[in-house]
Amino acid sequence: MGKTALITGITGQDGAYLAEYLIKKGYTVHGIKRRASLFNTDRIDHLYQDPQLDNRNLILHYGDMTDSLNITNIIGDVKPDEIYNLAAQSHVKVSFDTPEYTANVDGLGTLRILEAVRLLGLTEKSRIYQASTSELYGLVQEIPQKETTPFYPRSPYAVAKMYAYWITVNYREAYNMFACNGILFNHESPLRGETFVTRKVTRALSRIALGIQNDIYMGNLSSKRDWGHAKDYIKAMYLILQQDAPDDYVIATGVTTTIRDFITMAFKEIGVTVAFKGDGANETGEIVSIDEAVFGTKIGETYLAPLKKRLGEKIIKVDPKYFRPTEVELLIGDATKARTKLSWEPQYTLETLIKDMMQSDVKEMKKEAYLKEGGYRILNYFE
Ligand code: NAP
Ligand code: F7E
Questions:
Q1: Ligand 1 binding pocket mutation candidate from 8, 14, 89 (most atoms within 8 A of CB)
Q2: Which residues form the pocket of ligand 1, taking CB atoms under 6 Å from any ligand atom?
Q3: Is residue 375's pLDDT more than 80?
Q4: Is 23 exposed, middle or buried (0-12, 13-18, 19+ CB in 10 A)?
């Protein structure tokens, strides 16, 4: 008999990669998804199986992290060997707009999982992974950040996650539960939500290159992040729950890069060189040259002439509405403990992460560009 895992947040970026990974390992995966007025399972549709089939390895349950009875019922029914608590209102900027909801889902939601396991008498059976975050370090007290670095959260999101971190540690110590924190630094992928900075950039640059978007408005271009690939990071989650004893681990690449440099690298991937001028809210970025051979291969020659006309135009601009009331300026992690104890080693570099994201978004946006062109052609035909 394979193991059974329960993933909260299975419809999110990490949930989707983790579900696929565990199914390949022979797990039966249960996931909690929210009821929504539109389908919200795009990221896991390739794993979906009809409820009428026998021996399914992916089973979805409706639920919400704010509903204790629902969470307790699902855990009681599934009796999972492993619980991966990934569900969260995970957008830092949005947490300033919805602080109470974020605290409820991201903070108390974790308590609901831990209490359900305890009350159901599953403390011996169910191992728990809590999705903790580098945002806990906030106003960093040490560079690089490791497991022993003091926390200094800088957003309602981070404060809620701080509660979740400590309640996980407390239940481990108080009730001898196998409950662990993965303190993951930013991780991205083609499945990343469209409003996080990396995906916002790779989508927008693909659209600008294809002539279906004019410009992009950004927030703080100078903050620095330690970005890895989600595919590498979900393997760490799995490894954390396979150890002999529960513990907390930092998962990071040890490389930090500004948002500005991420944009430069993403444009470079399609043969476009940008230069930035000014600072703060007045900073702008423009295209200074195009490597025609690279652009032709990655985007297509058809799109070269229109983009060349835009050389020297301000394509990247700053809108202060994207600034945060309190910013996390610098994150860089030291994952020595994970590398040594878990033998965790990331396969992707920032360059290969960007390549993966740009390839995927160019492919996706080309469909939109073709439709638009096709649409114009049809319109012209009738005019
Ligand atoms: P994500 O793409 O935003 O996914 C979040 C998931 O949580 C989605 O499935 C979402 O459902 C679900 N969710 C949100 N509110 C919920 C609620 N009230 N009840 C039930 N489910 C709810 O996040 P991610 O990037 O995969 O991150 C996974 C976890 O790791 C999160 O806890 C995040 O805070 C944490 N984390 C992320 C990073 C990172 O860089 N990605 C780094 C450190 C920690 P819908 O699909 O219906 O919205
Ligand atoms: O911002 C700056 C922004 O929203 C990164 C979540 O997964 O990772 C994520 O949180 C940086 C910040 O991610 C824009 O000010 C500039 O300094 O992509 P982000 P995040 O806030 O680091 C951690 C580890 C988590 O746990 C979270 O769940 O980029 N930035 N301009 C911008 N950010 C956004 N979103 N949009 C901009 O236009």
A1: 14
A2: 8-9, 11-15, 32, 34, 36, 40, 64-66, 86-90, 105, 131, 133, 184, 186-187, 193
A3: no
A4: middle
**Cβ–Cβ < 8 Å for 182, 193:** no
pLDDT at 379: 52
Mean pLDDT, the chain, whole residue set = 97
| Tokens representing residue 79 in the block | 């009796």
For residue 383, pLDDT over 70 is answered with no
φ/ψ of 126, rounded to 5, equals -95, 120
Distance CA 296, CA 306 (A): 13
CB 115 within 8 A of CB 128: no
* Distances from the Cα of 82 to the Cα of 20, 60, 121, 179, 283, angstroms: 15, 16, 14, 10, 47
Task: Tell me how far apart the alpha carbons of residues 87 and 67 are, in angstroms, rounded to a whole number.
Answer: 13
pLDDT one-digit tens code per residue, 114-146: 999 999 999 999 999 999 999 999 999 999 999
pTM exceeds 0.85 for this model? yes
Tokens encoding 249: 């681990």
Question: Which amino acid type is present at position 115?
Answer: E
